């Protein structure tokens, strides 16, 4: 439906071409009214032109003020209207057209078919623009899709490339033989160098597990390789008939390898035991040979005795280390006993009363020696120096045996003079203390009323003079002529520190404690 621009009613546009009377779209009624008005205007104009023909021929340079004659309205002629209707409709020009209300203007005809065609052309242009816009959108959308697909493909390519890289790394890692030092080292190197490859992947846990096994393998293999290299070096040196100085270094090197060999496995432990026995035998024989050679030359000095001491110390240490190996234990027991007998003989010949009396006393309670004492960490034990005396009290709930150790050096042979008063409990003196205060291993004397090895009543001041020389210990109480202790020291420590212990509920005061260190 079309709306009339004059009266505003909606009407159906005619399908056939009709006369156009206005530039506006008019309904049939308004069009007829407009047509009649235009005809009347044309008729009036024609009569005016016929009444004054001369007016048009007058030159323009001589204008005359002619008053136009009045004209009467003439009824429109039907034939003229028919002629006008039969004439072809003029083409619309691009100039303002008179409205319905203007009083003149030429007659115009509207070709409704042309208007429809114009609308169709406009629709086609709109459709074309729409298609062009759709094409542009399609092009843009296609470009976006292409970009997205390209990005997706690139991401997919990167993911696939990384997966290939991870797979290649993991395959290479699994090929490393962790049973060899080179393979274990290669595995550790791969894990470190490719950390960015595997760290964020699902294989991370397995990679770390492999790396842990590889690190353990590297340590074990390096220790084993170290042992093998040292074994080879020691064997090569032993094959060259080494002197005592070289044997001393080799023996120290063997002892350094003991802990590593113990953790490297049974195979290495067996090799170590054999090598220790070989080097130990040669070293102890070298020490013994040097000592006996010096003694055979008539030398009975402390230096020669010190050489014997080194030999017996090493033989004893080898004996203890060989326990469990029947053959080695038997050998070291025999050689240690032989060296000890030889050393004891030299010591007894050297340490005569005249020699002993020339050795100065060392006061272990003096102000200079007091800082060298070491107390057992025990809450109930109190050890303190008062007026030049050592007071030891071990009392209180949960009290256990504890003591005080003089920690300056280890002694082989010594004379100890002690003045003391035992008020309660008991005390034990150890003369060659090693790692453990055990009277089965350490020469010791128990002081206690009634059942002690040295029986002294409580609250009395007593003097105990103890001699520990070679394989014998003697002790004399006060001014008594006969010793209260006279024992052979069999399979006990040959050297150590001096240690005084007090039992639970004991109180001991030592007013004099001095020593002559012979060796």
* Number of helical regions: 13
Percent of residues in helices: 40-55%
Radius of gyration: 66 Å
Approximately what portion of the residues adopt beta-strand conformation?
A: 15-25%
Query: CATH superfamily of the domain at 362-517, please?
Result: Exo-inulinase, domain 1
User: Which consecutive residue ranges, at least 5 long each, have pLDDT under 50?
Assistant: 54-87, 93-106
CATH class category of the domain at 362-517: Mainly Beta
Structural overview:
Strands 3, 5, 6, 8, 11, 12, 13 and 15 form an 8-stranded antiparallel β-sheet that branches. The model is unreliable at 54-87 and 93-106 (pLDDT under 50). This protein has helices at 28-51, 54-57, 78-86, 112-174, 181-193, 195-198, 204-238, 244-256, 258-264, 266-296, 302-321, 326-350, 353-357; strands at residues 2-3, 10-11, 362-363, 373-375, 381-386, 389-394, 402-411, 414-424, 427-433, 444-447, 461-469, 472-477, 485-488, 496-502, 506-517. With 519 residues, the protein is an alpha+beta fold.
């Amino acid at each position: 439906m079309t709306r009339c621009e004059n009266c505003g009613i909606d009407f159906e546009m005619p399908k056939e071409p009709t006369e156009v009377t206005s530039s506006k779209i008019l309904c049939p009624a308004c069009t007829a009214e407009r047509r009649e008005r235009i005809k009347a205007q044309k008729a009036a104009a024609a009569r005016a032109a016929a009444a004054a023909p001369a007016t048009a021929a007058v030159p323009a340079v001589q204008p005359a003020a002619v008053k136009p004659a009045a004209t009467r309205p003439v009824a429109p002629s039907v034939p003229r209207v028919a002629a006008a209707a039969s004439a072809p409709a003029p083409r619309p020009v691009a100039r303002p057209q008179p409205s319905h209300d203007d009083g003149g203007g030429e007659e115009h005809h509207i070709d409704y078919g042309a208007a429809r065609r114009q609308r169709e052309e406009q629709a086609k242009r709109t459709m074309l623009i729409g298609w062009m816009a759709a094409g542009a959108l399609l092009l843009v959308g296609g470009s976006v899709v292409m970009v997205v697909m390209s990005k997706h493909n690139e991401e997919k390519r990167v993911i696939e490339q990384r997966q290939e890289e991870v797979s290649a790394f993991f395959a290479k890692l699994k090929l490393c033989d962790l049973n060899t030092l080179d393979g274990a080292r290669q595995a550790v190197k791969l894990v470190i160098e490719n950390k960015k490859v595997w760290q964020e992947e699902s294989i991370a846990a397995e990679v770390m597990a492999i790396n842990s096994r590889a690190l353990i393998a590297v340590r074990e293999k390096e220790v084993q390789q170290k042992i093998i290299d040292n074994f080879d070096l020691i064997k090569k040196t032993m094959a060259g008939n080494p002197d005592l100085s070289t044997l001393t270094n080799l023996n120290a090197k063997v002892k350094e390898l003991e802990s590593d060999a113990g953790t490297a496995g049974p195979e290495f432990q067996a090799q170590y035991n054999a090598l220790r026995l070989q080097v130990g035998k040669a070293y102890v024989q070298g020490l013994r040979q040097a000592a006996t050679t010096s003694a055979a030359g008539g030398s009975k000095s402390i230096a020669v005795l010190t050489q014997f001491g080194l030999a017996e110390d090493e033989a004893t240490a080898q004996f203890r280390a060989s326990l469990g190996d029947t053959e080695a234990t038997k050998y070291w027991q025999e050689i240690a006993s032989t060296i000890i007998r030889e050393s004891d003989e030299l010591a007894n010949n050297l340490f005569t009363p005249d020699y002993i009396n020339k050795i100065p006393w060392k006061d272990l309670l003096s102000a200079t020696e007091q800082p060298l004492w070491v107390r057992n960490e025990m809450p109930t034990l109190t050890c303190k120096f008062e007026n030049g005396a050592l007071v030891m009290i071990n009392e209180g709930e949960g009290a256990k045996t504890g003591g005080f150790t003089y920690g300056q050096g280890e002694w082989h042979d010594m004379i100890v003079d002690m003045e003391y008063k035992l008020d309660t409990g008991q005390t034990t003196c150890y003369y060659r203390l090693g790692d453990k205060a055990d009277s089965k291993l350490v020469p010791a004397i128990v002081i206690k009323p009634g059942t002690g090895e040295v029986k002294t009543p409580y609250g009395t001041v007593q003097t105990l003079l103890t001699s520990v020389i070679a394989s014998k210990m003697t002790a004399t109480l006060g001014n008594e002529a006969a010793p209260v202790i006279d024992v052979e020291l069999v399979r006990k420590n040959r050297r150590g520190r001096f240690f005084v212990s007090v039992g639970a509920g004991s109180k001991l005061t030592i007013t004099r404690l001095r020593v002559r260190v012979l060796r």
